[in-house]
Amino acid sequence: MSRLEQLIKEFCPNGVEYKKISEVYKRLKGTPITAGKMKEIDNPNGEIRIFAGGKTVINAEEKDIPNANITRVPAVLIQSRGVIDAVYYDKPFTFKNEMWAYTAGNEIAVKYLYYVLKSNLSHFRKSASGMGSLPQISLRVTEEFVIPLPLLPVQQEIVRILDNFTELTAELTAELTARRKQYEYYRDLLLTFGDEVPIVKLGEIGTITRGSGLQKKDFTDHGVGCIHYGQIYTYYGAFAFETKSFVSPKLASKLKKVNTGDIIIAVTSETIEDVCKCVAWLGENEIVTGGHTAILKHNQNPKFISYYLQTYSFFKQKRKIAQGTKVIEVAPKKLEQISIPLPSLEEQDRIVTILDHFDALCNDLTNGLPTEISARQKQYEYYRDKLLSFKEVTS
Known about the structure:
Structural class: alpha+beta
Strand order of the largest sheet: 11-20-16-18-13
Helix content: 40-55%
Oligomer: single chain
Radius of gyration: 25 Å
CATH superfamily of the largest domain: DNA methylase specificity domains
Distance between the termini: 27 Å
Number of helices: 15
CATH topology of the largest domain: Adenine-n6-DNA-methyltransferase TaqI, Chain A, domain 2
Number of domains: 3
């Protein structure tokens, strides 16, 4: 019998109580603060962390937020708009007042709530759908959410087990991050050349056209392969041989065509870091793409170009031509002025062979660290959900 089974047998042999979160935990309020103000006071060395909507997080000095409600105890932050999530934080922090947080007199009880909420994110995200342009949940959704409440020794053992799972996954993720940084270093080194290699404009080696049309609602189970600009950020790597999605032949006839070797560049994003992420199409069949993309047709090694468009050298150039604040756009016409080193096709092939090896080590989802991390995460979620399932005590 495991330690947890012993504790359950000792402290809750007949089941556990279920109570609303509002009956057990203290709710904390956030701080009225604008995006402009956050940008103004952002300081990496600040002692107070500030959470805003989505994944926006900054640090700031306390003197720069005099009217803030600073939380100085361990708490669980409810990200209630855009990205629906729960965050555990145990250092001084505050958050935009559209969100809220929970705490309790015991740190274990707070961490336990965090794991319970993470286990039920699908419920909260479902509650947030259909609430306008951005997913959003109301305070009532968490206040009235009923959770199992075993006695503290049982909560403590559950937290210990799940913390260990989290730590192991974090170690693997850190190793993968280090390996990717190493890959990025060698990639940029391989794609840096001396005066012997000519520098040309993208517009000189091919043509760039803007895509149009194509929404996610247009996807079909079968038909003509398509790549939606959002999938370039979330699904595809530097190149692809197959598409995740399809559209009907009728719609495909109206969309921009992508042939083998073409580069599809996403020209709309929420961040300067992501905009212009691209994928080289290497499949045998002609596919289509839609709006918020640019298609580069050329006669060079497509992988060489795709790899170059990931480098810091390219990042510095795209930053100068990107426009917008909330939504970042790069005009396809301006992409024609991007400079790129152009060694011989033989040298491009040699560099691509080396980078393919590095890319496989870091990003191949069929083996290596990413697969191990994915398996560990699934194992963690399985045990987390199992550990947090209790029979309700009967009176």
